[in-house]
């Protein structure tokens, strides 16, 4: 509620300052406008009076007419002596010497004096009229005195008071309406912000299914839309964290299983040696089995250590240009025994002229892993390795006729711990489930790309594109 009251107070301060400023300005502007209009009216009447020679009879007749408009007339000669009305008619009327020297000089120069307070005899009060002073000249331009026309101040002041009263009432009503609307608007805004507070509490409690209403009309709506995007991102991140936790848990089970088997075998063999239970003709076979199981454990540990080293970029790349064909041929020869165990045929289609710019050892590691992966998921099929060079890119493809992958599997195969086929977790060629993740990280460090084309039951093709030395250094 504190935010609501702060908003309401801010709105009220702005409204009141605005209303007071506008009211003062309007009253001041209107007052000036009325005074200017009254001055213009009196000057116009004075001009119409002076079209004929001024005399007491003429001015007396004119004043009778002007009384209907609440206007009185006074006439002073060039010596500043009152000519009309006469002293016998003056009563509380115009007085001599009402003007100062500067004002009289201005009149002699032919300039009129604008609206000002002057005693015209409308009441017993002093300065009871708003009057104008207009110089009089004869046909030769000689100064003959001045004419004074005045209207009661009470009439003008009453009109102004009524006008000001109406303006104040109008602005007061407008201020009240604005205050009510501001309170309603502030409450509405507070309610909208309360939705954010409620949403953040639910998110803190682990509920990511909440969504804020956003109609795209104002900044808060845009903020709500961004908030919804953030919630969706948090929800996706939470789902990914849970998925990674499941993968890690599965990895621990897999690693424990993979380690248990060789350790159990090794323990049994060692106990047999310790108790003399292994016959002489079986000793060589037992030693070979012990050696293989030891290598299996070493390979399992090395795969994880190697991935961490590459992930942290602790091992710098030493890139160079070398021929692709001899390296791939050597790797296929190395993989021959694995392929035979799976009943697979491996084929190399690569020109001897094709070169690649890469770290030699890491290049071998990449394709050893890709060929291991191909053999792991292919039985009694073909694995073909092709290479070509196109527009600064060395493209090497590993295609198999194995079990293939679904679209969902393809989206995750380069993630650490992920296995496309969990049933193959016991395979001696793919224990840890990090081979393709390691490949992806190595290719990223090489600024190379890898693409997968696969369908379930129809095999998979992994295509790696290495940039030339020129493209890398540009």
UniProtKB/TrEMBL annotation:
Superkingdom assignment: Bacteria
Keyword annotations of the record: Kinase, Phosphoprotein, Transferase, Two-component regulatory system
Protein's UniProt keywords contain Phosphoprotein: yes
GO MF term list: phosphoprotein phosphatase activity; phosphorelay sensor kinase activity
GO CC annotation: plasma membrane
SMART domains (UniProt xref): HAMP, HATPase_c, HisKA
Coiled coil: none
GO biological process, one term: cellular response to phosphate starvation
Gene3D superfamilies linked to this entry: 1.10.287.130, 6.10.340.10, Histidine kinase-like ATPase, C-terminal domain (3.30.565.10)
Subcellular location per the Swiss-Prot or TrEMBL entry: Membrane
InterPro entries assigned to the protein according to its UniProt record, in alphabetical order: BphY/WalK/GraS-like, HAMP_dom, HATPase_C_sf, HATPase_dom, His_kinase_dom, HisK_dim/P_dom, HisK_dim/P_sf, Sig_transdc_His_kin-like_C
Keyword NAD: no
EC nos: 2.7.13.3
Main EC class the enzyme belongs to: transferase
Reactions this protein catalyses: ATP + protein L-histidine = ADP + protein N-phospho-L-histidine
Name of the protein this chain belongs to: histidine kinase
Annotated organism of origin: Aerococcus urinaehominis
